[in-house]
């Protein structure tokens, strides 16, 4: 790829894959088929690379263009939050793109290297495509990704195909799509029967498995609701700005009065088993007040719950010594009939905006980035046994906002015996962007993987009930003020590999990639002519 024509073709491949990614990532049913071809232009461009350096460069380019095309809404949101210049946020975001999307780079180099190893051994032509797919999936698991995205998420738009996520999560869907793309590349070079047949078989297996599992999930769900939940989405945002203009007490007063009124409206519409308010809806510590006014407001919330006779879960802060946590507070009846209180502390905090690692936390950093968060990490995945009226104990797997993007974390909670996943979130910083719907999609995958129903309540959208098939209903859209009643049906528990093992495919893919690479290297060294110049040098 030394000629101008060669580089033009390579750049065209990067551009084509970027455009296809952008369309596939819209989560629209009409674009689901793009997943089968989205990677093909870039893979074909890699196969024309004449050096490892050229292949890596194509990986870097795709990491940057992909980040800009799919997550172009993020720099503007961060600029609004931090009040930093938009150009600076864009610059930093694109600069770290190769780290956030490292799978493109590692897959590119491994593909080039393995193709060079097998270029005179047609019987081993299957190795580079398989190795590329394994390294891609393994790298996504190993490296940090702010949004935990993967190619397989685009299949959410297909109710049938997304059911395959209960085997190996979204990464399992990614692996299948990568292998189909590899078949497309081979067929594009000339009519070839085997890769065409393999692509069709892979697609039919994915569709068939999804159809069977979807039927099982539907059969397991009963018609009668086992839980009736009232969800309040008040759409009160920019709380810090409001507090600076009106005073903290007045803002908190307005938040509570609004939620009281909206909750009372839901209660008048029918009996509820549970009320849920979103993340940090009570933007101060609960149970450990910092002022006399705070203590009075704490007592007011308790009295309101006791008078209505309906258990409440709401987002607040929890304090232990000088350590403050983002928390979900559970208020409900106890075995003695008195009001009981339990707190769940958020563990998976968004870097910098919520939490700064102790290793880099310093007065200098705080001076440079005054918007950095000061919350501490909670103790990890845990179940909350929450007593409802009538003595029923509901086993809740609580999640707060960002935690919904971590498959292992959610699976660890559900394995403790959860009846329901309950997510409180605050997506107001990203209102008006694709982020709220993408976040909801991530949450839906957690329900598919664990086959567990989920109630998701946000302050500004998107709130929804998610069933074990990943379908969301009772939806409150972004930037909408409304309350809704979510009727959670009773369902027989279905087991799943992803629920039992969590995000298992990533480490397995890395181990298999290493084993395959070592085998290939030893095989080639054992053959005549193995003393040729090092292929890794690019000569």
From TrEMBL:
Pfam families per the record?
CN_hydrolase, LNT_N
Q: How does it sit in the membrane?
A: Multi-pass membrane protein
Q: What class of enzyme is it?
A: transferase
Keyword Zinc among record annotations: no
Tell me which residues make up the CN hydrolase domain: 232-494
Instruction: Give the residue spans that cross the bilayer.
Output: 7-24, 30-46, 55-78, 84-112, 124-147, 167-188, 195-212
**Keyword NAD found:** no
Q: Which GO terms describe its molecular function?
A: N-acyltransferase activity
GO process terms (BP): lipoprotein biosynthetic process
GO CC annotation, single? plasma membrane
Q: Matching InterPro entries, A to Z? A: Apolipo_AcylTrfase (IPR004563), C-N_Hydrolase (IPR003010), C-N_Hydrolase_sf (IPR036526), LNT_N (IPR045378)
- The protein's role, per its UniProt record: Catalyzes the phospholipid dependent N-acylation of the N-terminal cysteine of apolipoprotein, the last step in lipoprotein maturation.
Q: Belongs to which family?
A: Belongs to the CN hydrolase family. Apolipoprotein N-acyltransferase subfamily.
Q: What is this protein called?
A: Apolipoprotein N-acyltransferase
Q: What organism is this sequence from?
A: Corallococcus interemptor
């Amino acid at each position: 790829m030394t000629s101008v024509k060669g580089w033009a073709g390579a750049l065209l491949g990067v551009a084509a894959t970027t455009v296809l990614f952008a369309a596939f990532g819209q989560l629209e049913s009409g674009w689901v088929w793009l997943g089968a071809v989205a990677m093909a232009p870039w893979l074909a461009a890699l196969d024309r690379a004449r050096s490892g350096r050229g292949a890596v460069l194509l990986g870097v380019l795709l990491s940057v263009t992909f980040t800009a095309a799919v997550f172009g809404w993020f720099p503007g949101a961060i600029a609004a939050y931090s009040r930093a210049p938009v150009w600076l946020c864009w610059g930093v975001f694109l600069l770290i793109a190769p780290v956030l999307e490292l799978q493109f780079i590692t897959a590119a180099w491994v593909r080039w290297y393995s193709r060079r190893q097998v270029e005179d051994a047609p019987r081993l032509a299957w190795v580079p495509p398989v190795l590329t797919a394994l390294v891609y999936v393994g790298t996504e698991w190993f490296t940090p990704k702010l949004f935990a995205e993967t190619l397989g998420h685009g299949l959410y738009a297909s109710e049938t195909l997304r059911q395959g996520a209960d085997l190996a999560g979204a990464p399992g869907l990614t692996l299948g799509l990568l292998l189909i793309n590899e078949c497309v590349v081979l067929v594009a070079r000339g009519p070839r029967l085997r890769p065409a047949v393999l692509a069709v078989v892979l697609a039919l297996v994915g569709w068939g498995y999804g159809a069977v599992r979807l039927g099982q999930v539907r059969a397991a769900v009963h018609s009668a609701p086992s839980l009736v939940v009232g969800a309040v989405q008040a759409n009160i945002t920019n709380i810090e700005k409001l507090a600076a203009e009106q005073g903290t007490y007045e803002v908190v007063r307005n938040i509570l009065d609004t939620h009281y009124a909206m909750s009372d409206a839901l209660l008048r519409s029918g009996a509820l088993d549970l009320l849920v308010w979103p993340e940090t809806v009570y933007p101060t510590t609960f149970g450990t007040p910092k002022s006399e006014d705070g203590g009075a407001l704490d007592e007011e919330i308790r009295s309101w719950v006791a008078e209505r006779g309906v258990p409440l879960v709401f987002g607040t802060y929890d304090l232990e010594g000088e350590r403050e946590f983002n928390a979900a507070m559970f208020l409900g009846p106890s075995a003695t009939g008195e009001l009981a209180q339990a707190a769940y502390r958020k563990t998976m905090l968004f870097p910098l905006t919520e939490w700064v690692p102790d290793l880099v936390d310093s007065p200098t950093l705080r001076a440079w980035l005054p918007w950095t968060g000061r919350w501490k990490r909670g103790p990890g995945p845990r179940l909350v046994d929450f007593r409802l009226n009538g003595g029923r104990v509901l086993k809740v797997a609580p999640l707060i906002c960002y935690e919904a993007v971590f498959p292992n974390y959610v699976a660890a909670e559900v394995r403790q015996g959860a009846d329901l996943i309950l997510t409180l979130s605050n997506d107001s910083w990203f209102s008006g962007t694709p982020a709220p719907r993408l976040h909801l999609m991530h949450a839906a995958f957690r329900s598919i993987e664990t086959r567990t129903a989920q109630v998701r309540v946000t302050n500004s959208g998107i709130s929804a009930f998610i069933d074990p098939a990943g379908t969301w209903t009772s939806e409150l859209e972004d930037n909408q003020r409304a309350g809704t009643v979510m009727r959670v049906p009773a369902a027989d528990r279905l087991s799943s590999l992803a629920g039992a093992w969590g995000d298992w495919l990533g480490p397995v893919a890395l181990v298999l990639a290493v084993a395959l690479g070592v085998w290939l290297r030893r095989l080639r060294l054992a053959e005549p002519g193995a003393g040729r110049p090092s292929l890794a040098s690019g000569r």
